[in-house]
Specification:
Alpha-Beta Plaits, 47% helix, 25% strand, elongated
Length: 99
């Protein structure tokens, strides 16, 4: 994490984190900070601008990093269980009589 006059820079490795996870985490933090994303072939660069009324920027950024991990794992679990969820829904709707 680097701090500059324009904000705080946080980098995420694209081999580890999905861009969608970073976007979802940024959205969840919209009440505490603004995030500009720049995606390259190898990384996701976040320029973070923490609202002055909020706690220290380091605390908010740490929470944001945790949220990115949480969102990434949610996406991974959703992807891994997609076929099972479809099977359960198909079975549930097959017994409703709706056609």
């Amino acid at each position: 994490m680097n701090t500059g006059t324009e904000g705080h820079e946080v980098l995420f490795d694209r081999q580890v984190y999905a861009t969608e996870a970073v976007q979802k985490a940024a959205y969840r933090f919209v009440d505490r900070m603004a995030v500009n994303l720049q995606v390259t072939d190898t990384q996701i660069r976040c320029m973070i601008f923490v609202d002055p009324e909020v706690r220290t920027p380091d605390d908010v950024i740490r929470e944001f990093q945790k949220e990115v991990l949480d969102q990434h794992l949610r996406l991974k679990i959703a992807s891994e269980t997609e076929s099972i969820r479809h099977l359960i829904l198909a079975h549930a709707f097959s017994r409703t009589g709706l056609t």
